Amino acid sequence: MPLLERLRNDFVVLRQLLRGMPRDAAQSQQLQAFYGPQAAHYDEFRDRLLPGRAELISRLPLSDGAHVVELGGGTGRNLDFFGERLDAVASVEIVDLCTALLDVARTRASGRANVRVIEADATTYRPDRNVDCVYFSYSLTMIPNWQAALANAWAMLKPGGTIGVVDFCVPMTSAIRLRALQSIESTFWKRWFAHDGVRLNPDHRVMLRQLFPHNEIVERRARVPYLPAAMVPYYLFIGQKPLAS
Hints:
Low-confidence stretches: none
Structural class: alpha/beta
Shape: globular
Number of strands: 7
Strand order of the largest sheet: 3-2-1-4-5-7-6
Helix content: 25-40%
Mean pLDDT: 90
Order of helices and strands: HHHHEHEHEEHEHHEE
Number of helices: 9
Strand content: 15-25%
């Protein structure tokens, strides 16, 4: 993409980010007002903002014929990270509340009989059957009742099923001499993201570990577009629902 065109597209997205997420409306209306004007340029900008998505998808242990649900799937961009494995799964359901983003997802999923795009609430939607895998890709921090979303994910998973999460987080360290700096950094990122409806909360990982005691979690950092000195923390979590539950 030519540089000037990219800058114009980025301006559309950045303008919405500066305006922030509307507050006085239902969740679906907030999402539509915030993402609607930037939906056409959403993926190109977020590919530089949201790290770790391809890695998360590649690490999900999906067998042939697996049934998969993405909660808060937006534009369906993560479908592209499945590669050839997408042909081998029985179904992928992309669930979101934002009409504008789901319109992009429907275009992306066109012609794929094993992909369904569903406008629904991640805290209450249930597929027709228990599934092999549920994942959240930068959506858990945007769901106000995230506890209900995780409980819903747990409920729809088969025993032994897999949950995957990639999202921004507050940095965590046990080093005493770093705690003051960590507190300052955490406050900055919480306020910076909250403007756009993203709620950083270390309790996400606490609940994930409680629900899915067999797990792997890693924390990393990535650059932020137009903030060259900033390295934002994010994490990947992959857990398994206990066989006896």
